[in-house]
């Protein structure tokens, strides 16, 4: 057996590095690796769409629920075809991106309450609605403060909501800020602070291991218990992407085989989006570098049997 000796200062540095890695929130680690999740200031869409009737769109409870989060439209074009179960997508931004597939609804998000996101918000959200968006998503992970999260107090989020999102109440269904799996108390406070707001559905994120489908259902029910008659959108979920070791593709497919049928039959789960379509993401991308579905993407978007 070989015994290795390290100088004390080296040991201290190694322990410090390990602590910083293990203590950094998942959302922050994810954002450090995938900077698109901490977006640049929102731009204006290059293409504009003619106004549509100024009225709240009809709600169709039988509409498919599946969607996808993405970083570039070239990674979701493969899902805009016959037999695809994916009908919507978002990219943590508000401007309709170039190349957005015609058959997929782009859902705008007001990522944060700062001017880099609110300056172009009104124009971008209206343009997305004119294109066909029936829904709007609120702030990204305001219950957590770190890279990749919007870090907003419930009161400040309610104030920003009234200013920027509430004005669209007659044109789109409005989604709450997207909380993390630890954000239930933040959400409860926000709903109190924004009790006069038209919050039609709650959107949230969930990450855990590939065997936690029981916990997935239990957590969703715990959120449903505090939101009244609102529905739930699971706008980010992944199983095993950030565990050690990472889940295999087959393990993630097994997870989906357990949770997708449950979500599809649960009437208060309105929509969901797997994280994510990005070939450089090694935690379960739905698309490969040639733009075609991975084995996971094939199951998620086309098979599900």
From TrEMBL:
One GO cellular component term: fungal-type cell wall
Protein's UniProt keywords contain Signal: yes
Signal peptide stretch: 1-23
Keywords linked to the UniProt accession: Glycosidase, Hydrolase, Signal
Region of interest (Disordered), residue spans: 32-52
Gene3D superfamilies documented for this protein: Glycosidases (3.20.20.80)
GO biological process annotation, one example: fungal-type cell wall polysaccharide metabolic process
GO molecular function: hydrolase activity, acting on glycosyl bonds
Domain Asl1-like glycosyl hydrolase catalytic: 67-300
Record InterPro entries: ASL1, Asl1_glyco_hydro_catalytic, GH
This protein's name: (Trans)glycosidase
Organism this protein belongs to: Glarea lozoyensis (strain ATCC 20868 / MF5171)
